Amino acid sequence: MNMILSQKRILLLAIVVAGLGLVLFSAFSKSETKEEAIPEVEEAPVTYATTGVEFDNPLYEISVPAELEPAEQVAVYAKITGFVQKLLVDRGDQVKKGQLLAVLEAPEMEQQYLSDKSTQERMHSDYLFAKQAYERLVEASKTSGAVAAIELDRAKTAMESAQAAYEASKAGAAHSSQMQQYLRITAPFDGVITQRNVSAGALAGPGSELPLFEMAQHQNLRLSLSLPERHAASVKNGAKASFTVNSLPGEVFEAELSRTSGLLDQSDRSLKLEFDVDNSSGKLQGGEYAQVNLKLQRSAPTFWVPSESVLYTQSGTYVMTQNNNEIRRIPVREGIRRGGLTEVFGDLSSEDSIIVKPSEEIKVGPIGGSTNK
After folding, report:
1. Fewer CB under 10 Å: which end of the chain, C or N?
2. Is 328 inside a domain boundary?
3. Residue 357: which domain range?
4. Same domain, yes or no, for 277 and 360?
5. Contacts 24+ apart (CB under 8 A), 53-56
6. Average pLDDT of 18-28?
7. CATH number at residue 251
8. The pLDDT value given to residue 176
Protein backbone atom coordinates (compact mmCIF):
# COMPACT_ATOMS: atom_id res chain seq x y z
CA MET A 1 0.00 0.00 0.00
CA ASN A 2 2.81 2.41 0.94
CA MET A 3 4.64 1.47 -2.18
CA ILE A 4 1.62 2.27 -4.31
CA LEU A 5 1.33 5.71 -2.66
CA SER A 6 4.99 6.42 -3.24
CA GLN A 7 4.69 5.58 -6.92
CA LYS A 8 1.67 7.85 -7.26
CA ARG A 9 3.54 10.74 -5.62
CA ILE A 10 6.51 10.27 -7.93
CA LEU A 11 4.21 10.20 -10.95
CA LEU A 12 2.42 13.35 -9.74
CA LEU A 13 5.76 15.17 -9.18
CA ALA A 14 6.93 14.20 -12.67
CA ILE A 15 3.71 15.57 -14.17
CA VAL A 16 4.15 18.89 -12.27
CA VAL A 17 7.79 19.24 -13.35
CA ALA A 18 6.88 18.51 -16.94
CA GLY A 19 4.14 21.12 -16.78
CA LEU A 20 6.47 23.75 -15.39
CA GLY A 21 9.01 22.98 -18.07
CA LEU A 22 6.36 23.36 -20.74
CA VAL A 23 5.25 26.72 -19.28
CA LEU A 24 8.82 28.02 -19.11
CA PHE A 25 9.56 26.89 -22.66
CA SER A 26 6.43 28.57 -23.93
CA ALA A 27 7.30 31.84 -22.15
CA PHE A 28 10.88 31.81 -23.44
CA SER A 29 9.67 31.14 -26.97
CA LYS A 30 7.24 34.05 -26.82
CA SER A 31 9.92 36.39 -25.45
CA GLU A 32 12.35 35.38 -28.17
CA THR A 33 9.71 35.81 -30.81
CA LYS A 34 8.81 39.25 -29.43
CA GLU A 35 12.48 40.38 -29.45
CA GLU A 36 12.88 39.23 -33.03
CA ALA A 37 9.80 41.18 -34.00
CA ILE A 38 11.20 44.61 -32.79
CA PRO A 39 12.83 46.32 -35.81
CA GLU A 40 16.18 48.11 -35.39
CA VAL A 41 15.86 51.96 -35.56
CA GLU A 42 18.74 53.71 -37.28
CA GLU A 43 20.13 56.66 -35.22
CA ALA A 44 19.50 60.02 -36.90
CA PRO A 45 22.67 61.95 -37.88
CA VAL A 46 23.60 65.00 -35.81
CA THR A 47 23.37 68.23 -37.82
CA TYR A 48 24.15 71.87 -37.01
CA ALA A 49 23.26 75.15 -38.65
CA THR A 50 26.25 76.42 -40.63
CA THR A 51 27.24 79.45 -42.65
CA GLY A 52 30.04 80.39 -45.03
CA VAL A 53 33.26 82.34 -44.43
CA GLU A 54 33.55 85.81 -45.95
CA PHE A 55 36.89 86.78 -47.52
CA ASP A 56 36.76 90.57 -47.73
CA ASN A 57 38.77 93.77 -47.29
CA PRO A 58 36.25 96.41 -46.25
CA LEU A 59 36.80 99.94 -45.03
CA TYR A 60 36.14 100.07 -41.32
CA GLU A 61 35.91 102.90 -38.84
CA ILE A 62 37.30 103.20 -35.32
CA SER A 63 37.11 105.94 -32.71
CA VAL A 64 40.17 106.82 -30.61
CA PRO A 65 41.03 109.68 -28.22
CA ALA A 66 43.65 112.25 -29.26
CA GLU A 67 45.30 115.48 -28.16
CA LEU A 68 45.07 118.74 -30.07
CA GLU A 69 48.34 120.60 -29.56
CA PRO A 70 50.00 123.68 -31.09
CA ALA A 71 52.16 122.77 -34.07
CA GLU A 72 55.04 124.61 -32.35
CA GLN A 73 55.40 125.69 -28.75
CA VAL A 74 58.45 126.86 -26.84
CA ALA A 75 59.64 128.27 -23.54
CA VAL A 76 61.74 131.41 -24.15
CA TYR A 77 64.80 131.72 -21.87
CA ALA A 78 67.55 134.33 -21.62
CA LYS A 79 70.82 132.96 -22.92
CA ILE A 80 72.99 135.27 -20.81
CA THR A 81 72.61 136.65 -17.30
CA GLY A 82 71.05 140.09 -17.02
CA PHE A 83 68.28 142.13 -15.45
CA VAL A 84 64.97 142.60 -17.28
CA GLN A 85 64.93 146.20 -18.45
CA LYS A 86 61.79 146.19 -20.60
CA LEU A 87 58.88 143.80 -21.23
CA LEU A 88 57.18 144.60 -24.52
CA VAL A 89 54.49 141.85 -24.66
CA ASP A 90 52.10 140.11 -22.29
CA ARG A 91 49.95 136.98 -22.21
CA GLY A 92 47.60 136.69 -25.18
CA ASP A 93 49.60 139.00 -27.47
CA GLN A 94 50.02 137.89 -31.08
CA VAL A 95 53.65 138.21 -32.18
CA LYS A 96 55.61 137.80 -35.42
CA LYS A 97 58.87 135.98 -35.93
CA GLY A 98 61.80 138.21 -34.91
CA GLN A 99 59.58 140.64 -32.97
CA LEU A 100 61.27 142.11 -29.85
CA LEU A 101 59.73 140.67 -26.69
CA ALA A 102 62.01 141.97 -23.93
CA VAL A 103 65.29 143.79 -23.34
CA LEU A 104 67.86 142.83 -20.71
CA GLU A 105 70.63 144.98 -19.32
CA ALA A 106 74.10 143.83 -18.32
CA PRO A 107 76.59 146.77 -17.96
CA GLU A 108 79.57 144.44 -17.80
CA MET A 109 78.66 143.15 -21.28
CA GLU A 110 78.87 146.68 -22.67
CA GLN A 111 82.22 147.26 -21.02
CA GLN A 112 83.53 143.98 -22.40
CA TYR A 113 82.43 144.91 -25.86
CA LEU A 114 84.09 148.36 -25.66
CA SER A 115 87.32 146.75 -24.43
CA ASP A 116 87.33 144.18 -27.23
CA LYS A 117 86.52 146.85 -29.81
CA SER A 118 89.42 148.99 -28.58
CA THR A 119 91.79 146.02 -28.76
CA GLN A 120 90.65 145.33 -32.30
CA GLU A 121 91.39 148.89 -33.41
CA ARG A 122 94.84 148.82 -31.77
CA MET A 123 95.71 145.52 -33.40
CA HIS A 124 94.51 146.87 -36.69
CA SER A 125 96.90 149.86 -36.38
CA ASP A 126 99.80 147.55 -35.48
CA TYR A 127 99.06 145.40 -38.47
CA LEU A 128 98.91 148.37 -40.84
CA PHE A 129 102.27 149.68 -39.50
CA ALA A 130 103.95 146.28 -39.86
CA LYS A 131 102.56 145.92 -43.35
CA GLN A 132 103.87 149.34 -44.42
CA ALA A 133 107.32 148.56 -42.96
CA TYR A 134 107.50 145.32 -44.86
CA GLU A 135 106.37 146.90 -48.13
CA ARG A 136 109.09 149.61 -47.81
CA LEU A 137 111.78 147.02 -47.23
CA VAL A 138 110.56 145.09 -50.25
CA GLU A 139 110.83 148.25 -52.34
CA ALA A 140 114.30 149.02 -50.95
CA SER A 141 115.48 145.42 -51.54
CA LYS A 142 115.18 146.04 -55.26
CA THR A 143 118.46 147.98 -54.97
CA SER A 144 121.21 145.41 -54.73
CA GLY A 145 122.80 145.29 -51.25
CA ALA A 146 120.50 147.93 -49.75
CA VAL A 147 118.60 145.50 -47.44
CA ALA A 148 119.86 142.31 -45.93
CA ALA A 149 117.72 139.23 -46.63
CA ILE A 150 117.34 138.50 -42.93
CA GLU A 151 115.88 141.97 -42.35
CA LEU A 152 113.34 141.35 -45.07
CA ASP A 153 112.32 138.04 -43.50
CA ARG A 154 112.06 139.61 -40.06
CA ALA A 155 109.76 142.34 -41.39
CA LYS A 156 107.58 139.79 -43.13
CA THR A 157 107.26 137.72 -39.95
CA ALA A 158 106.35 140.81 -37.94
CA MET A 159 103.64 141.71 -40.44
CA GLU A 160 102.13 138.23 -40.42
CA SER A 161 102.17 138.15 -36.60
CA ALA A 162 100.43 141.51 -36.45
CA GLN A 163 97.84 140.29 -38.96
CA ALA A 164 97.10 137.19 -36.86
CA ALA A 165 96.71 139.28 -33.71
CA TYR A 166 94.36 141.62 -35.55
CA GLU A 167 92.17 138.71 -36.78
CA ALA A 168 92.00 137.34 -33.23
CA SER A 169 91.00 140.72 -31.79
CA LYS A 170 88.36 141.09 -34.50
CA ALA A 171 86.87 137.70 -33.57
CA GLY A 172 86.85 138.72 -29.90
CA ALA A 173 84.98 141.93 -30.68
CA ALA A 174 82.49 140.02 -32.83
CA HIS A 175 81.89 137.64 -29.93
CA SER A 176 81.22 140.50 -27.55
CA SER A 177 78.89 142.09 -30.08
CA GLN A 178 77.01 138.82 -30.51
CA MET A 179 76.65 138.42 -26.76
CA GLN A 180 75.14 141.88 -26.61
CA GLN A 181 72.54 140.78 -29.14
CA TYR A 182 71.37 138.13 -26.63
CA LEU A 183 70.21 140.97 -24.40
CA ARG A 184 67.39 141.43 -26.90
CA ILE A 185 64.81 138.61 -26.60
CA THR A 186 62.93 138.03 -29.87
CA ALA A 187 60.12 135.69 -31.00
CA PRO A 188 61.35 132.48 -32.70
CA PHE A 189 58.18 132.14 -34.82
CA ASP A 190 54.73 133.62 -35.42
CA GLY A 191 52.46 132.80 -32.51
CA VAL A 192 50.78 133.89 -29.32
CA ILE A 193 52.26 134.55 -25.88
CA THR A 194 50.69 131.96 -23.58
CA GLN A 195 52.58 132.86 -20.39
CA ARG A 196 54.69 135.73 -19.02
CA ASN A 197 56.66 134.62 -15.97
CA VAL A 198 58.80 137.67 -15.02
CA SER A 199 58.48 141.36 -14.33
CA ALA A 200 60.78 144.29 -15.07
CA GLY A 201 63.86 144.25 -12.85
CA ALA A 202 63.93 140.46 -12.44
CA LEU A 203 67.24 138.65 -12.86
CA ALA A 204 67.19 136.28 -15.84
CA GLY A 205 69.79 133.98 -17.29
CA PRO A 206 70.91 130.38 -17.87
CA GLY A 207 70.72 129.58 -14.15
CA SER A 208 67.00 130.37 -13.97
CA GLU A 209 64.56 127.44 -14.21
CA LEU A 210 61.68 129.77 -15.04
CA PRO A 211 61.42 130.96 -18.67
CA LEU A 212 60.73 134.58 -19.51
CA PHE A 213 57.82 133.67 -21.79
CA GLU A 214 55.97 130.66 -23.12
CA MET A 215 54.53 130.90 -26.59
CA ALA A 216 52.76 128.68 -29.11
CA GLN A 217 51.71 128.71 -32.72
CA HIS A 218 47.94 129.14 -32.79
CA GLN A 219 47.10 129.13 -36.50
CA ASN A 220 48.43 125.61 -37.08
CA LEU A 221 47.63 122.78 -34.69
CA ARG A 222 48.74 119.17 -34.47
CA LEU A 223 46.34 116.32 -33.75
CA SER A 224 48.28 113.47 -32.09
CA LEU A 225 46.95 110.01 -31.30
CA SER A 226 48.15 106.51 -30.43
CA LEU A 227 46.71 103.82 -32.70
CA PRO A 228 46.43 100.32 -31.12
CA GLU A 229 48.76 97.67 -32.49
CA ARG A 230 46.00 95.60 -34.13
CA HIS A 231 45.20 98.53 -36.47
CA ALA A 232 48.78 99.59 -37.23
CA ALA A 233 48.96 97.77 -40.58
CA SER A 234 45.71 99.39 -41.79
CA VAL A 235 47.04 102.97 -41.98
CA LYS A 236 47.45 104.39 -45.49
CA ASN A 237 49.27 107.51 -46.62
CA GLY A 238 46.89 110.45 -46.72
CA ALA A 239 44.36 108.75 -44.45
CA LYS A 240 41.41 110.98 -43.59
CA ALA A 241 40.14 111.65 -40.09
CA SER A 242 37.24 113.55 -38.59
CA PHE A 243 37.24 114.73 -35.00
CA THR A 244 35.20 116.56 -32.41
CA VAL A 245 36.12 118.55 -29.29
CA ASN A 246 34.13 119.11 -26.10
CA SER A 247 34.30 122.89 -26.35
CA LEU A 248 32.40 122.87 -29.67
CA PRO A 249 29.72 120.18 -29.41
CA GLY A 250 28.04 119.31 -32.69
CA GLU A 251 30.90 120.57 -34.88
CA VAL A 252 33.00 118.09 -36.84
CA PHE A 253 36.47 118.97 -38.15
CA GLU A 254 38.47 117.25 -40.89
CA ALA A 255 42.18 116.45 -41.06
CA GLU A 256 44.59 114.43 -43.21
CA LEU A 257 47.43 112.23 -41.99
CA SER A 258 50.69 114.21 -42.09
CA ARG A 259 53.24 111.89 -40.49
CA THR A 260 53.64 108.66 -38.57
CA SER A 261 56.48 107.21 -36.55
CA GLY A 262 56.46 104.02 -38.65
CA LEU A 263 57.42 101.98 -35.57
CA LEU A 264 55.38 100.83 -32.60
CA ASP A 265 55.99 102.64 -29.33
CA GLN A 266 57.56 100.06 -27.01
CA SER A 267 55.86 101.53 -23.93
CA ASP A 268 52.27 100.86 -25.04
CA ARG A 269 52.63 98.97 -28.36
CA SER A 270 50.90 101.66 -30.36
CA LEU A 271 51.59 103.60 -33.56
CA LYS A 272 51.86 107.38 -33.21
CA LEU A 273 49.94 109.38 -35.84
CA GLU A 274 49.95 113.13 -36.40
CA PHE A 275 47.50 115.24 -38.41
CA ASP A 276 48.14 118.90 -39.26
CA VAL A 277 45.06 121.03 -38.62
CA ASP A 278 44.51 124.46 -40.14
CA ASN A 279 43.19 126.76 -37.43
CA SER A 280 43.29 130.05 -39.30
CA SER A 281 39.67 130.60 -38.20
CA GLY A 282 40.80 130.50 -34.56
CA LYS A 283 37.91 128.23 -33.50
CA LEU A 284 40.07 125.54 -31.92
CA GLN A 285 42.18 125.89 -28.83
CA GLY A 286 45.52 124.12 -28.56
CA GLY A 287 45.71 121.70 -25.65
CA GLU A 288 42.21 120.24 -26.03
CA TYR A 289 41.29 116.56 -26.01
CA ALA A 290 39.61 115.33 -29.18
CA GLN A 291 37.70 112.21 -30.25
CA VAL A 292 38.89 111.04 -33.67
CA ASN A 293 37.08 108.81 -36.16
CA LEU A 294 39.45 107.04 -38.54
CA LYS A 295 38.60 105.11 -41.70
CA LEU A 296 41.07 102.27 -42.12
CA GLN A 297 41.58 99.32 -44.47
CA ARG A 298 43.76 96.21 -44.32
CA SER A 299 46.53 95.78 -46.87
CA ALA A 300 44.93 92.46 -47.99
CA PRO A 301 41.56 90.66 -47.61
CA THR A 302 40.92 88.67 -44.43
CA PHE A 303 38.37 86.13 -43.14
CA TRP A 304 35.14 87.26 -41.49
CA VAL A 305 32.66 85.08 -39.58
CA PRO A 306 29.50 85.80 -37.56
CA SER A 307 30.45 86.99 -34.10
CA GLU A 308 28.26 84.30 -32.47
CA SER A 309 30.25 81.56 -34.25
CA VAL A 310 33.45 82.38 -32.31
CA LEU A 311 33.92 79.94 -29.42
CA TYR A 312 35.74 81.18 -26.31
CA THR A 313 37.20 78.51 -24.04
CA GLN A 314 39.81 78.33 -21.31
CA SER A 315 42.24 76.78 -23.79
CA GLY A 316 41.80 79.49 -26.44
CA THR A 317 39.54 80.97 -29.12
CA TYR A 318 38.12 78.74 -31.86
CA VAL A 319 35.65 78.38 -34.70
CA MET A 320 34.13 75.00 -35.60
CA THR A 321 33.87 73.82 -39.21
CA GLN A 322 31.60 71.11 -40.63
CA ASN A 323 33.01 69.96 -43.95
CA ASN A 324 32.49 66.58 -45.66
CA ASN A 325 30.61 65.19 -42.64
CA GLU A 326 33.50 65.99 -40.33
CA ILE A 327 33.63 68.54 -37.53
CA ARG A 328 36.89 70.31 -36.75
CA ARG A 329 37.85 72.90 -34.16
CA ILE A 330 40.11 75.62 -35.67
CA PRO A 331 42.19 77.89 -33.39
CA VAL A 332 41.86 81.55 -34.44
CA ARG A 333 42.96 85.02 -33.39
CA GLU A 334 40.37 87.76 -33.28
CA GLY A 335 40.77 90.94 -35.28
CA ILE A 336 38.22 93.73 -35.45
CA ARG A 337 34.43 93.67 -35.40
CA ARG A 338 32.15 95.13 -38.04
CA GLY A 339 28.43 94.93 -37.53
CA GLY A 340 27.64 91.32 -36.63
CA LEU A 341 30.89 90.01 -38.12
CA THR A 342 34.26 89.34 -36.50
CA GLU A 343 37.58 89.25 -38.32
CA VAL A 344 39.52 86.05 -37.58
CA PHE A 345 42.96 84.74 -38.48
CA GLY A 346 43.55 80.99 -38.64
CA ASP A 347 43.70 77.90 -40.85
CA LEU A 348 40.52 78.70 -42.78
CA SER A 349 39.46 78.83 -46.41
CA SER A 350 36.60 80.42 -48.30
CA GLU A 351 35.09 76.94 -48.84
CA ASP A 352 34.68 76.19 -45.12
CA SER A 353 31.24 75.86 -43.52
CA ILE A 354 31.23 77.41 -40.04
CA ILE A 355 28.93 76.18 -37.30
CA VAL A 356 26.84 79.18 -36.35
CA LYS A 357 26.42 78.39 -32.65
CA PRO A 358 29.32 76.20 -31.52
CA SER A 359 29.75 74.78 -28.02
CA GLU A 360 32.29 72.70 -26.18
CA GLU A 361 29.81 69.78 -26.08
CA ILE A 362 29.99 69.31 -29.86
CA LYS A 363 32.18 66.31 -30.58
CA VAL A 364 35.05 66.73 -33.02
CA GLY A 365 35.43 64.08 -35.75
CA PRO A 366 33.41 62.29 -38.46
CA ILE A 367 29.60 62.44 -38.31
CA GLY A 368 26.79 60.78 -40.29
CA GLY A 369 24.16 62.44 -42.39
CA SER A 370 24.24 65.67 -44.32
CA THR A 371 24.83 69.27 -43.27
CA ASN A 372 22.14 71.90 -42.87
CA LYS A 373 23.15 75.01 -44.73
Report:
1. N
2. yes
3. 51-57+301-366
4. no
5. 53/303, 53/304, 53/305, 53/348, 53/349, 53/350, 53/351, 53/352, 53/354, 54/303, 54/304, 54/305, 54/341, 55/301, 55/302, 55/303, 55/304, 55/350, 56/301, 56/302, 56/304
6. 54
7. 2.40.30.170
8. 85
